[in-house]
Design a protein that fits this description.
Largest sheet: 6 strands, mixed
Radius of gyration: 17 Å
Strand content: 25-35%
Strand order of the largest sheet: 6-7-8-3-9-10
Length: 228
């Protein structure tokens, strides 16, 4: 469960990114966060990993207020969350397999466990045959599948996807969304997807939270992108 309670984020120069945001996300839910550029979507995601800190309010993950946890506990918090970025953020000097394995290596997992887990995840996302290739040898869709594999290899409770289809063609965009939906159904992880893709939002009919100038203006169980 995730809960935002009266959360605001104001930057030092005075810009208000989020204003008095309150909502809850139950376990296993898939939801979209939509809104125009500058609405606060990325800021909202960053608050969940404490990459950014709120100015006021509380954010709960598993009934723990993550706005109050000590910096020494941030690695533990972030292990519960898988991040998928628009620009992939893969290491160019490592193969696809090595990029995914790194997420477990930094947690000091046993070598045998790493090998088995990475192989299983690459099979799940459909790129096991590309495991020896480097990022520059992969297509956009393959890069995003690699990023998804890296995000889920540690079995996170929450998956955050910030515009994961923005640089992909329609066919690959749909494949990525279907993959995330399948992961949500199979693992039970909460999936929060920030997007401008109206077709995907309107077709899937998942919960939609709409932000506008830092305010939560819509929260619909089966929302549409054009909702205002």
């Amino acid at each position: 469960m995730i809960k935002f309670s009266k959360v605001s984020k104001k930057f030092p120069e005075g810009t208000v990114a989020l204003s008095d945001i309150t909502f809850e996300i139950p376990d296993k839910q898939f939801l979209f966060v939509i809104g125009p550029s500058g609405a606060g979507k990325t800021t909202l995601l960053k608050l969940l990993t404490r990459e950014s800190e709120s100015s006021s309010g509380s954010i709960f993950l598993d009934e723990e207020d993550i706005t109050k946890i000590h910096h020494s506990k941030l690695p533990s918090l972030r292990r519960k969350i898988g991040n998928i970025f628009q620009d992939y953020r893969l290491l160019d000097d490592r193969t696809l397999w090595e990029n995914v394995a790194l997420a477990l290596e930094v947690r000091s997992r046993p070598e045998k466990e790493i090998k088995t887990t990475v192989e299983n995840v690459l099979e799940l996302v459909g790129i096991s045959d590309k495991k020896g290739l480097f990022p520059q040898q992969l297509s956009g869709g393959e890069l995003q599948r690699t990023a998804i594999a890296r995000a889920i290899v540690g079995s996170p409770e929450v998956i955050l996807a910030d515009e994961p289809t923005a640089d992909l063609d329609p066919k690959n965009s749909w494949e990525i969304i279907k993959l995330l939906s399948r992961i949500n159904e199979q693992s039970g992880a909460i999936v929060i997807l920030a997007t401008h893709n109206a077709e995907i939002v309107n077709t899937l009919k998942k919960r939609v939270i709409r932000l506008d100038r830092g305010k939560l203006v819509k929260d619909e169980k089966e929302g549409k992108y054009e909702s205002v």
